Structure formats: C-alpha cells, structure tokens
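**Paired protein data**
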Amino acid sequence: MAERAAIAVRRHRDHDAAAFAARHRDWPEWARRAAAARALAITLGVEAEDVTVTDDPDRRYADGRYPGMTLTVTEPVTERAWRFIPDLTLAPGTGWLLLDQCPGCGEAVPMAAITALADLGEYLAPDPEVDTTFDTAFDHVPGDHFGDPAHRPGCTHAALT
C-alpha cells in the first residue's frame, strides 16, 4: 500500500501541485473530486490511484464562477493518459465524456459518451459491420461536442447544431 500511496501522491503533485497542497482549505471539493475519481475508476476498471482530478482549463460552471473538473486516467504500464469530464446530463458519477482531438481544430473536446468500458472500446474500435442509422459521421458524438468552449475560433464543430 505504501508504494501505491507514493505513486498516487506523485501523480497528484505532477498534475496540480498547488491544488493538492491546498486541498485542506476546501475539503468538501477535495472529497467531491475523490468521489468522481473513484466512480470513473470503477467505470473503467482501473485503480483509483490511476485517476487524477484537476480544474478544467476550458469549462466553467454556475455562470462561470466555478471551474469544471478534468479527470485524467493514466495507464500504469504505457503511461498513456486519457482525459474525461463529467457528463452533466446524467446523475453525478454515472457518465463521462471522453476528451479527444476535434477533427476540425485539433483541440481536446468531448468525442464520446462513456458509461462503461465497452463505450470506450466502441469509440476506439468501432464495428464496421454494424448497420447504423447515423446520417453523418458525427451524429454519434455527445451534444457537448458542438459548441464546446475548447474549440478554436472558426472551427466548424464549434457551432451549435
């Protein structure tokens, strides 16, 4: 357990040292983020210490008063990082939006709704044999994709559909 704790603290400090050091000043927020990390870890079948939560640099809530949260899952073997934000259309801790590169501008925006590991698998390896009823290639992206504040100005995906 000591080794896992050392890894967890190192990840928290690497992702946001100032926020980690100040966590006792807003313990309810720290607890809320810890709960979100545990929920995402369960959804994806990873260890909770592989999930870190930071302020979202692009998304704010409550009329801009509060930063959103970005949850980063780091695979222990490959060190590949996956980024998610909560899906606010669902109950807290039950859904996530995978951030990936926008095909229009290259910024990290919501590209897939995730409620189970299989959702991530479908995004990474869609089944070409499945008959879909999608009219366009982007009918499957979450509604938050279009109009997301992380899009670059002029991106064709920045406009709300």
Notes: Residues 2-124 form one domain.
